[in-house]
Amino acid sequence: MGLYAGIHFSHIAFSVNKTDIPSLVDADFNLALSPNVGLFMSLPIEGGLSLQAEAGFTFSTFKSSNIEKQGDDIIEEEGSVEMSMGNFSLSLKYSSLKPGTRFYLHGGAGLAYAFSRNNTVDRYQKIDSIESRETFDWSNEAMSKVYLEVLAGIGATFDLSEQYPLFVEVRIDQLFANDPPTPGITRVGVVAGVGF
Q1: CB-facing half-sphere around the CA of 133: CA atoms within 13 A
Q2: What is the tens place of the pLDDT at every residue in 8-32?
Q3: Residue ranges per domain, the chain?
Q4: Which pTM was predicted?
């Protein structure tokens, strides 16, 4: 059993095949830095193979900006997606058996749940010298609460002592939305933890 923490670069995408909201499909969301923390528990199976369970929490804020100009007419859209998510996953780790530093491969799947989801688009329009501002909340129409998570990673375990092994892992996570089936989220980052 142990604790882990990490930081990911996260990308969010709304598919044109799954939502008909142009403000989200056409938006170019910037990469977000997503910190995450959690607990893990490993159960040795055989040789260098072990079963690992993880429960964690992460928070992400995605921003987008889009400007369209046609003559003197202007449409500006500022998008913001904020999500806090919890996840639970089961995975397999295959590690070398040599003492000291042990490299390993890691892969598994689980479920993630959006505790909070806020998706708004602020639109400013100036058409024929008439200006207007509107805010649209797409949180319920386009944001899933439940996600399937698939993860893969490569890392190394360092024995600080018999009781406190330290690991560092480069990991990629893909989250697939349930209902509504959007957005898709890809996370790439580094996770570190210590067992006790």
Answers
A1: 2
A2: 999 999 988 888 898 899 888 999 9
A3: 31-58+90-97
A4: 0.88
